[in-house]
Amino acid sequence: MQITSFRKTTNLNCSSPDALIKILPEVVNQVEKKGFSVFSAWDTEADTVQKIARQFGKIMRHIRADESGITTVAQGKSWHQNSNSSQNSPIEKNEYQSYDADEVIAHTDGTFIDGMNIIDGQIVRVEPPYVVLFQCVAPAEQGGELILIDTQQVLSDMLVENAQLAKILLTPGCISFCRDDQIALDFPVFQQRFDGSLRVRINCDNKAFTPDWSYEAVKRLYEEYFKNPKYRVALKLESKDVLVIDNYRVLHGRAVYQVYNNNNIRHHRRIWVANEPPNLVKNLQEEVKMKRAFETYNSYRITSPLLEEVPFKIKGGIRLKAESEKLLPGILHDLNISGSKER
Protein backbone atom coordinates (compact mmCIF):
# COMPACT_ATOMS: atom_id res chain seq x y z
CA MET A 1 0.00 0.00 0.00
CA GLN A 2 1.36 3.39 -0.96
CA ILE A 3 1.71 5.88 1.88
CA THR A 4 -0.03 8.93 0.47
CA SER A 5 0.30 11.32 3.41
CA PHE A 6 2.33 11.39 6.58
CA ARG A 7 1.77 13.40 9.71
CA LYS A 8 3.61 13.26 12.99
CA THR A 9 1.63 12.73 16.12
CA THR A 10 -0.02 15.63 17.91
CA ASN A 11 1.74 17.84 20.44
CA LEU A 12 -0.86 16.92 23.09
CA ASN A 13 0.95 15.42 26.06
CA CYS A 14 -0.36 13.83 29.23
CA SER A 15 2.57 13.39 31.61
CA SER A 16 0.59 11.91 34.53
CA PRO A 17 -2.81 10.44 35.40
CA ASP A 18 -3.66 13.72 37.13
CA ALA A 19 -3.15 15.60 33.86
CA LEU A 20 -5.58 13.40 31.94
CA ILE A 21 -8.72 15.34 32.87
CA LYS A 22 -7.06 18.57 31.72
CA ILE A 23 -6.38 17.39 28.16
CA LEU A 24 -9.51 15.33 27.53
CA PRO A 25 -11.72 18.29 26.52
CA GLU A 26 -9.26 19.01 23.71
CA VAL A 27 -9.16 15.30 22.76
CA VAL A 28 -12.97 15.29 22.48
CA ASN A 29 -12.84 18.52 20.46
CA GLN A 30 -10.33 17.02 18.01
CA VAL A 31 -12.31 13.78 17.58
CA GLU A 32 -15.52 15.75 16.91
CA LYS A 33 -13.72 18.09 14.51
CA LYS A 34 -11.62 15.67 12.45
CA GLY A 35 -12.64 12.16 13.57
CA PHE A 36 -9.55 11.28 15.61
CA SER A 37 -7.05 12.54 18.16
CA VAL A 38 -3.56 11.45 19.21
CA PHE A 39 -1.82 12.25 22.45
CA SER A 40 1.18 10.97 24.39
CA ALA A 41 0.27 9.23 27.67
CA TRP A 42 2.40 8.87 30.80
CA ASP A 43 3.34 5.20 30.26
CA THR A 44 2.58 2.09 28.18
CA GLU A 45 0.80 0.02 30.83
CA ALA A 46 -2.44 -1.78 29.92
CA ASP A 47 -4.22 -0.15 32.84
CA THR A 48 -3.51 3.23 31.29
CA VAL A 49 -5.40 2.70 28.03
CA GLN A 50 -8.25 1.12 29.98
CA LYS A 51 -8.46 4.15 32.27
CA ILE A 52 -8.49 6.47 29.25
CA ALA A 53 -11.16 4.45 27.42
CA ARG A 54 -13.52 4.61 30.39
CA GLN A 55 -13.59 8.39 30.14
CA PHE A 56 -15.48 8.10 26.83
CA GLY A 57 -18.00 5.35 27.62
CA LYS A 58 -18.51 1.69 28.52
CA ILE A 59 -15.79 -0.69 27.43
CA MET A 60 -17.03 -3.23 24.88
CA ARG A 61 -15.53 -6.70 24.95
CA HIS A 62 -14.01 -8.53 21.99
CA ILE A 63 -13.64 -12.23 21.30
CA ARG A 64 -9.82 -11.86 21.42
CA ALA A 65 -9.73 -9.42 24.33
CA ASP A 66 -8.68 -10.16 27.88
CA GLU A 67 -11.03 -9.69 30.84
CA SER A 68 -10.41 -5.93 30.82
CA GLY A 69 -11.46 -5.61 27.17
CA ILE A 70 -7.93 -5.11 25.79
CA THR A 71 -6.89 -6.84 22.58
CA THR A 72 -3.18 -7.28 21.90
CA VAL A 73 -2.37 -6.47 18.27
CA ALA A 74 0.57 -8.13 16.52
CA GLN A 75 2.81 -8.58 19.52
CA GLY A 76 4.35 -11.76 18.16
CA LYS A 77 2.34 -13.99 20.48
CA SER A 78 1.03 -17.24 19.10
CA TRP A 79 -2.55 -17.28 17.85
CA HIS A 80 -3.72 -19.59 20.63
CA GLN A 81 -2.17 -17.47 23.41
CA ASN A 82 -4.16 -14.43 22.29
CA SER A 83 -7.50 -16.15 21.64
CA ASN A 84 -10.48 -16.29 23.95
CA SER A 85 -10.74 -19.96 24.88
CA SER A 86 -14.27 -19.46 26.19
CA GLN A 87 -15.62 -18.86 22.69
CA ASN A 88 -18.21 -21.50 21.79
CA SER A 89 -17.29 -21.80 18.13
CA PRO A 90 -13.80 -22.08 16.64
CA ILE A 91 -12.04 -18.86 15.69
CA GLU A 92 -10.59 -18.87 12.20
CA LYS A 93 -7.17 -17.25 12.19
CA ASN A 94 -7.55 -16.17 8.56
CA GLU A 95 -10.52 -14.02 9.63
CA TYR A 96 -8.17 -11.68 11.54
CA GLN A 97 -5.67 -9.45 9.78
CA SER A 98 -3.47 -8.22 12.61
CA TYR A 99 -1.41 -11.39 13.08
CA ASP A 100 0.98 -10.76 10.22
CA ALA A 101 2.93 -7.80 8.91
CA ASP A 102 0.95 -7.37 5.69
CA GLU A 103 -1.29 -4.48 4.73
CA VAL A 104 -4.60 -4.20 6.57
CA ILE A 105 -7.26 -2.71 4.29
CA ALA A 106 -8.98 0.34 5.76
CA HIS A 107 -12.25 -0.53 7.52
CA THR A 108 -14.49 0.25 10.44
CA ASP A 109 -14.33 -2.15 13.38
CA GLY A 110 -17.11 -4.59 14.23
CA THR A 111 -18.96 -4.45 10.91
CA PHE A 112 -20.29 -7.99 11.48
CA ILE A 113 -21.90 -7.28 14.89
CA ASP A 114 -25.69 -6.81 15.04
CA GLY A 115 -27.56 -8.38 17.96
CA MET A 116 -28.81 -8.09 21.54
CA ASN A 117 -27.74 -9.11 25.02
CA ILE A 118 -28.95 -8.70 28.60
CA ILE A 119 -26.87 -6.47 30.88
CA ASP A 120 -27.90 -5.37 34.37
CA GLY A 121 -31.42 -6.66 33.73
CA GLN A 122 -31.77 -4.56 30.54
CA ILE A 123 -31.95 -5.74 26.92
CA VAL A 124 -29.23 -3.88 25.04
CA ARG A 125 -28.42 -3.67 21.35
CA VAL A 126 -24.92 -4.97 20.63
CA GLU A 127 -23.47 -3.04 17.70
CA PRO A 128 -20.07 -2.04 16.35
CA PRO A 129 -18.05 0.10 18.76
CA TYR A 130 -18.59 3.84 18.73
CA VAL A 131 -14.99 4.71 19.59
CA VAL A 132 -11.79 2.69 19.06
CA LEU A 133 -8.56 3.38 20.97
CA PHE A 134 -5.08 2.21 20.02
CA GLN A 135 -2.12 2.34 22.40
CA CYS A 136 1.39 2.03 21.00
CA VAL A 137 3.71 0.07 23.30
CA ALA A 138 6.45 -0.40 20.68
CA PRO A 139 6.35 0.70 17.02
CA ALA A 140 7.65 -1.39 14.14
CA GLU A 141 11.26 -0.76 13.17
CA GLN A 142 10.09 0.24 9.71
CA GLY A 143 6.58 0.78 8.30
CA GLY A 144 3.35 -0.10 10.08
CA GLU A 145 1.79 3.35 9.82
CA LEU A 146 -1.90 3.52 10.68
CA ILE A 147 -3.98 4.73 7.73
CA LEU A 148 -7.02 6.88 8.56
CA ILE A 149 -9.78 7.84 6.09
CA ASP A 150 -12.37 10.48 7.01
CA THR A 151 -15.66 9.44 5.39
CA GLN A 152 -17.30 12.73 6.36
CA GLN A 153 -15.25 14.39 3.65
CA VAL A 154 -15.76 11.42 1.33
CA LEU A 155 -19.56 11.50 1.55
CA SER A 156 -19.70 15.31 1.40
CA ASP A 157 -17.81 15.30 -1.88
CA MET A 158 -19.66 12.28 -3.26
CA LEU A 159 -23.09 13.85 -2.77
CA VAL A 160 -21.98 16.79 -4.91
CA GLU A 161 -19.90 14.87 -7.48
CA ASN A 162 -21.77 11.58 -7.84
CA ALA A 163 -25.21 11.58 -6.24
CA GLN A 164 -26.18 8.28 -7.89
CA LEU A 165 -23.24 6.47 -6.29
CA ALA A 166 -24.11 8.01 -2.93
CA LYS A 167 -27.73 6.90 -3.36
CA ILE A 168 -26.70 3.26 -3.79
CA LEU A 169 -24.40 3.39 -0.76
CA LEU A 170 -27.20 4.93 1.34
CA THR A 171 -29.61 2.15 0.35
CA PRO A 172 -30.38 -0.53 2.98
CA GLY A 173 -29.35 -3.94 1.71
CA CYS A 174 -26.32 -2.79 -0.28
CA ILE A 175 -23.84 -4.62 1.96
CA SER A 176 -23.74 -7.43 4.55
CA PHE A 177 -20.97 -8.77 6.77
CA CYS A 178 -20.15 -12.16 8.23
CA ARG A 179 -17.30 -13.41 10.40
CA ASP A 180 -17.23 -16.70 12.27
CA ASP A 181 -20.71 -16.99 13.90
CA GLN A 182 -21.54 -13.28 13.59
CA ILE A 183 -23.63 -11.87 10.76
CA ALA A 184 -25.03 -8.39 9.99
CA LEU A 185 -27.43 -8.42 7.05
CA ASP A 186 -28.65 -5.79 4.59
CA PHE A 187 -27.07 -2.58 5.83
CA PRO A 188 -26.34 0.62 3.95
CA VAL A 189 -22.72 1.72 3.90
CA PHE A 190 -23.88 5.12 5.16
CA GLN A 191 -26.76 4.98 7.64
CA GLN A 192 -28.76 7.88 9.03
CA ARG A 193 -28.85 8.17 12.84
CA PHE A 194 -31.46 9.48 15.25
CA ASP A 195 -29.76 12.88 15.65
CA GLY A 196 -29.50 13.61 11.92
CA SER A 197 -25.88 12.50 11.61
CA LEU A 198 -24.81 9.41 9.68
CA ARG A 199 -22.55 6.50 10.45
CA VAL A 200 -20.38 4.36 8.19
CA ARG A 201 -20.10 0.57 8.34
CA ILE A 202 -17.65 -0.82 5.79
CA ASN A 203 -15.08 -3.48 5.09
CA CYS A 204 -13.86 -4.76 1.76
CA ASP A 205 -12.22 -8.08 2.64
CA ASN A 206 -13.66 -11.59 2.91
CA LYS A 207 -16.15 -10.49 5.60
CA ALA A 208 -18.12 -8.30 3.17
CA PHE A 209 -20.92 -9.42 0.82
CA THR A 210 -23.00 -7.42 -1.66
CA PRO A 211 -25.91 -8.11 -4.02
CA ASP A 212 -25.30 -7.64 -7.73
CA TRP A 213 -26.90 -4.20 -7.82
CA SER A 214 -24.44 -2.65 -5.33
CA TYR A 215 -21.27 -4.65 -6.06
CA GLU A 216 -19.72 -2.10 -8.45
CA ALA A 217 -20.72 0.84 -6.24
CA VAL A 218 -18.89 -0.57 -3.20
CA LYS A 219 -15.85 -1.32 -5.38
CA ARG A 220 -15.92 2.24 -6.72
CA LEU A 221 -16.12 3.62 -3.19
CA TYR A 222 -12.80 1.95 -2.40
CA GLU A 223 -11.06 2.57 -5.69
CA GLU A 224 -12.15 6.18 -6.35
CA TYR A 225 -12.46 7.55 -2.83
CA PHE A 226 -10.76 5.45 -0.16
CA LYS A 227 -7.56 5.11 -2.22
CA ASN A 228 -7.57 8.82 -3.07
CA PRO A 229 -4.66 10.64 -1.31
CA LYS A 230 -7.06 13.53 -0.61
CA TYR A 231 -8.81 11.51 2.08
CA ARG A 232 -5.93 9.52 3.57
CA VAL A 233 -3.71 10.31 6.56
CA ALA A 234 -0.86 8.07 7.70
CA LEU A 235 0.14 8.19 11.35
CA LYS A 236 3.32 6.73 12.80
CA LEU A 237 2.52 6.13 16.46
CA GLU A 238 5.42 6.17 18.90
CA SER A 239 5.66 4.42 22.25
CA LYS A 240 3.12 5.83 24.77
CA ASP A 241 0.96 7.39 22.03
CA VAL A 242 -2.80 6.83 22.28
CA LEU A 243 -5.01 7.20 19.20
CA VAL A 244 -8.76 7.82 19.67
CA ILE A 245 -10.91 7.15 16.58
CA ASP A 246 -14.59 7.88 15.87
CA ASN A 247 -15.51 4.46 14.45
CA TYR A 248 -18.80 5.84 13.06
CA ARG A 249 -16.86 8.23 10.82
CA VAL A 250 -13.22 7.24 10.29
CA LEU A 251 -11.82 4.07 8.69
CA HIS A 252 -8.50 2.72 9.91
CA GLY A 253 -6.02 0.37 8.27
CA ARG A 254 -2.32 -0.39 8.45
CA ALA A 255 0.63 -0.20 6.10
CA VAL A 256 3.01 -3.10 5.61
CA TYR A 257 5.84 -3.24 8.13
CA GLN A 258 9.18 -4.99 8.31
CA VAL A 259 10.03 -7.86 10.66
CA TYR A 260 13.76 -8.48 11.03
CA ASN A 261 15.21 -11.89 11.99
CA ASN A 262 11.68 -13.16 12.79
CA ASN A 263 11.56 -10.72 15.71
CA ASN A 264 8.25 -8.82 15.59
CA ILE A 265 8.72 -5.95 18.04
CA ARG A 266 5.57 -4.05 16.96
CA HIS A 267 3.16 -4.06 19.89
CA HIS A 268 -0.13 -2.18 19.98
CA ARG A 269 -3.18 -2.59 22.20
CA ARG A 270 -6.75 -1.93 21.08
CA ILE A 271 -9.86 -1.31 23.12
CA TRP A 272 -13.48 -0.72 22.04
CA VAL A 273 -15.94 1.75 23.56
CA ALA A 274 -19.70 1.26 23.07
CA ASN A 275 -22.31 3.79 21.96
CA GLU A 276 -23.24 6.19 24.75
CA PRO A 277 -25.92 6.16 26.05
CA PRO A 278 -26.58 2.45 25.43
CA ASN A 279 -29.31 1.54 22.95
CA LEU A 280 -31.93 -0.20 25.11
CA VAL A 281 -34.61 -2.52 23.70
CA LYS A 282 -37.97 -3.48 25.23
CA ASN A 283 -39.75 -6.80 24.87
CA LEU A 284 -43.39 -6.44 23.80
CA GLN A 285 -44.44 -8.76 26.62
CA GLU A 286 -42.19 -6.83 29.02
CA GLU A 287 -40.05 -9.90 29.66
CA VAL A 288 -36.34 -9.74 30.27
CA LYS A 289 -35.32 -13.25 29.39
CA MET A 290 -32.11 -14.60 27.95
CA LYS A 291 -32.52 -16.05 24.46
CA ARG A 292 -30.12 -18.50 22.89
CA ALA A 293 -29.53 -16.00 20.07
CA PHE A 294 -28.24 -13.51 22.64
CA GLU A 295 -25.46 -15.88 23.68
CA THR A 296 -23.66 -15.27 20.37
CA TYR A 297 -22.97 -11.73 21.59
CA ASN A 298 -21.53 -12.61 24.99
CA SER A 299 -18.03 -12.10 23.62
CA TYR A 300 -18.98 -8.56 22.52
CA ARG A 301 -21.04 -7.49 25.52
CA ILE A 302 -20.84 -4.05 27.06
CA THR A 303 -19.38 -3.79 30.54
CA SER A 304 -21.53 -2.60 33.42
CA PRO A 305 -22.64 -0.60 35.37
CA LEU A 306 -24.71 0.17 32.30
CA LEU A 307 -26.23 3.53 33.28
CA GLU A 308 -23.16 5.02 34.97
CA GLU A 309 -22.50 8.59 33.87
CA VAL A 310 -19.69 9.02 31.34
CA PRO A 311 -17.28 11.93 32.00
CA PHE A 312 -16.45 12.88 28.40
CA LYS A 313 -19.05 12.06 25.74
CA ILE A 314 -17.99 12.35 22.12
CA LYS A 315 -20.52 13.71 19.63
CA GLY A 316 -19.48 11.44 16.81
CA GLY A 317 -20.68 10.30 13.42
CA ILE A 318 -20.71 11.98 10.01
CA ARG A 319 -21.98 15.58 10.05
CA LEU A 320 -22.15 16.95 6.53
CA LYS A 321 -21.19 20.35 5.20
CA ALA A 322 -24.09 22.65 4.35
CA GLU A 323 -23.59 22.29 0.59
CA SER A 324 -23.85 18.51 0.61
CA GLU A 325 -26.25 18.25 3.56
CA LYS A 326 -29.03 19.94 1.57
CA LEU A 327 -28.77 17.15 -1.06
CA LEU A 328 -29.28 14.35 1.45
CA PRO A 329 -33.05 14.71 2.19
CA GLY A 330 -33.93 14.33 -1.48
CA ILE A 331 -31.93 11.12 -1.79
CA LEU A 332 -33.38 9.68 1.42
CA HIS A 333 -36.88 10.61 0.27
CA ASP A 334 -36.31 8.78 -3.03
CA LEU A 335 -35.19 5.75 -1.02
CA ASN A 336 -38.25 6.08 1.25
CA ILE A 337 -36.04 5.83 4.35
CA SER A 338 -36.26 9.40 5.60
CA GLY A 339 -38.32 8.27 8.60
CA SER A 340 -36.36 5.12 9.46
CA LYS A 341 -33.44 6.51 11.36
CA GLU A 342 -31.08 4.39 13.40
CA ARG A 343 -30.81 5.37 17.04
Automatic annotation (TrEMBL):
It is an enzyme of class 1 (oxidoreductase). Its cofactor is Fe(2+). Residues 8-272 form the TauD/TfdA-like domain. It comes from the Bacteria. InterPro entries: AlphaKG_dependent_hydroxylases, TauD-like_sf, TauD/TfdA-like. One of its GO terms (molecular function) is dioxygenase activity. The keyword Transport does not apply. Pfam families: TauD. Its EC number is 1.14.11.-. The keyword 4Fe-4S does not apply. Keywords: Antibiotic biosynthesis, Dioxygenase, Oxidoreductase. This is TauD/TfdA family dioxygenase. It comes from Floridaenema fluviatile BLCC-F154. The lineage of its organism: Bacteria, Bacillati, Cyanobacteriota, Cyanophyceae, Oscillatoriophycideae.
